Every structure is written in C-alpha cells, then in structure tokens.
Amino acid sequence: MAEFSTRLGAFIRFGALPGLTALPDELDKRNYLLGIYQTYLAKDIKSFLKDESVLSFNKMLSWLALHNGVMLNKNTLAGASSVSSRQIDRYLEVLQGTFVLSLLPPLSSNKGKELVKTNKFYFYDQGVANSIIQDFRPLDSRPDSGTLREAFVFWELKKHIDVRHSLKYWRTADGSEVDFVLEKDRELLPIEVKSSWRPGKIPSGLSTFFRYYPETKSGIVLYDGPEMTCAHDCREVHFAPIHKASRVLEVL
User: What's the rounded Cα separation, in Å, for the pair 130 and 69?
Assistant: First the structure.
C-alpha cells in the first residue's frame, strides 16, 4: 500500500507525460514540464488564437489550473480572464481540441433538482497544471488534495472505458453530489472519491443517489484504505484503494 501511495503522490505532482518518469530528480521534472508549458501551451496553442489577447488567455489558463476538477462557470471564467463568454467558448474549444483539458458532463434524468448544463473540467495532465501555477507540493500538503485525487480517478476511468460506457458526474441544486457515474447499457454505477474515510460508512452523496435512482445495484467508494464490500439497502457498496480505480469497470 505504501508503495502505491508513493507512486500516486508522484503521479499527481508531476503527471505522466512521455519521458518524464525517466528523469532523475525533481528539478529535471519541473524543468521538463516548464518547457512543455512554454513551447506547447504558450506558443503552439496560441498560434490557433491568432490576434486574440495573450494576456487574457494566460489568465484563463491560470484560473483553470487553480480550479482543476471543479464545475465550469463560464461567466466567472470570463470575468477572471477579462473577456466575453463567447471568447471563453473559443478558448475552451481550442484547449479541448489540442488535448489540454476534457469536460465531464452532469448526469440528468429530469428528476427536478438535478443540474443539467454545468460541466466539470479536468486537465489531461496534472503535472502541466501544476507547472502553470508553480505548485508541486506533496499531495497531502495541498489544500486541493481531494480534487487532485478525483482528477487521478477521472483519468484512470477515461483510459479504460470504451464505447460501451459513458462517464458523468451527478449533483443536485441543493448540493448532493457523486463524483463520477459510470453508465453501461442504461445501468448506473456511482463512484465516490475520498481521502480519509471510515471503512464501511456510506457517503451521504451515495445514499442520496440511491434514493434518486433506486434501480442502481451497487456503488463504489475509492479511498486511502483497504478493500471491502458492505451491504446498503440490498445493494453492494465496494470500498477500494484509489490506485485501483481502473478496476471499477469489473463491477459494471
């Protein structure tokens, strides 16, 4: 477990770009990531934007990197970047098309209080996001450590799902939320990501999801703890370490 925790921490600090893992020390890794940012993001991507404001684009990148994994409020992002919402749409289109970030849509079945339009977003590589904001502190020293764990799980799921699956998140207007919902052939699998958590205790968001979707057969809690399975209202809730995120596909 300790070995996997160390590897997870390194992955979340420096990402997994090709060539990076072979570099001998932290300074080399940071220089490598800075070079990626300066050549790819600061130059190559900006060439798509032509005469558009470089300063506004940089502001937007910084805001996105600081808030990686949250719900995307375009009006807030436009204000932080000093551009119009229409311009933000253009920036986001470029970033998605060049594989800098990906959007995660909400699950909605028109059950009244569910969010239906607001996407979350995740950088493709956390090392790049860390380089933009110059924050390479260890995982548990970061105030956003919970969101960083979510980002890791997001990309583990994205790497292993195929055309049979769709991946979303779930949230209601009054704040009930499940980090990820995997769907296959109309069957839903809610997934919660936690750091410190008591094994066997069911997160409130998961319980609420089960009430909204009583046909759901099981759920997943990924956390820093041992594997186990418990029963909750005739359903199975599986607990597993975060580094085993890709194995949740075996449940669905």
Answer: 13
Q: Computed from CA positions of residues 137, 105, 218, 247, in that sequence, does the dihedral angle turn out positive or negative?
A: negative
186-198 pLDDT per residue, tens: 999 999 999 888 8
- Residue 217: what pLDDT? 95
Q: Which domains does the chain have, with CATH numbers?
A: 2-250 (1.10.10.10)
- Give the DSSP per-residue string, 176-190: -EEEEEEEETTEEEE
Count of CB atoms situated within 10 Å of the CB of 114: 16
Q: What is the spatial distance between Cα 17 and Cα 196, in angstroms, rounded to a whole number?
A: 28
Alpha-carbon Rg for the chain in angstroms: 19
pLDDT tens sequence across 131-142: 999 999 998 899
